[in-house]
Amino acid sequence: MIKSKLNFLIFFFILFPQQKIFSQTIFSSEYKSQSDVNVYVVNYKSQADLLVFKVDYKSQAKGNDGLWYFVDYESQSDKNIFFVDYKSQADINIFFVKYKSQAGWKNKNKKHLLY
User: Fold this and answer.
1) From its phi and psi, is residue 21 left (phi > 0), alpha (psi between -120 and 50) or beta?
2) What is the pLDDT of residues 12-31, one digit of tens each?
3) Could you tell me the residue range of the domain that residue 88 belongs to?
C-alpha cells in the first residue's frame, strides 16, 4: 500500500512539475511594504539587470527569463513588485524590450530574487 502511494507521488511530480516556482506572473503593488521585490525601470538596456518582455497570456510567462505577465490581483501572482522612483531604492533594475527574444538576465547574480 505504501509502495503504491510512493509510486503515485513520484509519477505525479514527474508528470506535473511545479510550474509555479518557475512562472513569472507579476502583480504591481501600490505600496512598497507589500512587495517582494523593488524594481526600477532604467532608460537604457545597458543599465538593466533584467530585460523584460510583457507577454499577452499567462501561459507564455514560463521560466525566470524576463517574460512577465501582469495580473490584476495579488493572489494570482507569483511575485509582487513595487516600482520605485530612484535607482538606489531598487533590488533589480529592468528595461522593457520590444521583442520576446531580447528578454533575459544580464546580471545573473540577482536571478534568485524572482524565484
Assistant:
1) alpha
2) 556 555 444 456 899 999 99
3) 18-114
